[in-house]
């Protein structure tokens, strides 16, 4: 019988040059070089590694002296790899990927099936999860959930964020995703606002109503829902528009009676103070995917959380797809 004993839970650390003997490579120094290449500056590399900038500088200089090579061109625009370092980069990247894979596998093998699971999601999806934490907590005894608001998919290959809920998934090695929800959108307004502005039900809403919209230009980035571009352009051209940069601000403005807004049906239909004044806008359908790194997903606690979150979305399918709203008058289509 073989017994496996867990000695430590920290990151895997390669033997340093001083421990291994003269001429040996120190992985800690190589990790610093990799960070400087990736960030382009000592200060950014220091932040990414949790070290001081002088420490990063000393590590770079020490490795250059050990190798007898100049690795970076120092300039006002940052640190750029020299031809010598460019030749070494394929090997350095291979070492970094192997070390990261080793750390992921070690965490999988040491995972007791309980502990912290951190989930990242965009604004509306993070609100969906936060409002259903009691159900998730009941379905996941022994799991401590943390929810992060992140506009784009963060690094899911480490141990800082484990799962993501997003409509756009980057094409990166190791990432796996599956469709968990189709989110319908429609026009909503506060009941008292709609009562004062009956044109909200008609195509006159564009010119005669106030609008609350997401300020995509200010925030930056593009939407994967390209079919919705004409709809967004028409809203942006309305005469009375309030532009906001977060989904929380949009919902707050909507509930204050600031105007009409295009929001997910799972948000609008769940609030009795809001009324849907248009049919579902098919061009705005968002397809949410549950994203995980293939290695991280084999961890027992991550696998448990992944299935519970997928089941939660499945249970709320009618709400997500705009089928759970009470019977009310349906206004003019948005694209009419």
UniProtKB/TrEMBL annotation:
Annotated source species: Inquilinus limosus
Any GO MF annotation of the entry: sequence-specific DNA binding
Keywords: DNA-binding, Transcription, Transcription regulation
Stated name of the protein: HTH lysR-type domain-containing protein
Entry-linked InterPro entries: LysR-type_TF_proteobact-type (IPR058163), LysR_HTH_N (IPR000847), LysR_subst-bd (IPR005119), WH-like_DNA-bd_sf (IPR036388), WH_DNA-bd_sf (IPR036390)
Family that this chain belongs to: Belongs to the LysR transcriptional regulatory family.
Chain ranges of the HTH lysR-type domain: 25-82
GO BP: DNA-templated transcription
Membrane-spanning intervals of the chain: none
